[in-house]
Design a protein that fits this description.
Blueprint (H helix, E strand, L loop, with lengths): L20 H11 L6 H8 L3 H12 L31 E6 L2 E6 L4 H14 L1
Antiparallel strand pairs: 1-2
Helix pairs in contact: 1-2, 1-3
Amino acid sequence: MEAVRFVELLAAPAAKRRWSDEAKGQMVAETLVPGVTVNEVARRHGVKANHLSSWRTLARMGKLVVPEVAGAEFTAPVVVTQTSEPPIVTGTIDLVIGPVTVRLDAATPAARVAELVIALRACS
């Protein structure tokens, strides 16, 4: 009788690929060109379509930068900082501690008001 030998090859699981934010943004941008599908772009880059769809969601939420691609129908969100002037405060603050009343302008800094309260309490 002859001995029968079996050889079994086990493939190790593929290492997880990590995509940079720039690469993700580029792939998302490619999906925004009319006539191009998510599946097509995913196949071309060797990415699962559901990952690419998740990245599209991140881009819509403004959490992923999408570069400009010719023909894309998407405008990336732009953060605009608005300079606002401090509100004009009118009115007064009355500090009443015991028989003493101190009237302050409403624009008096909170630290100064706290100092005055401590000083007035020490005197009463």
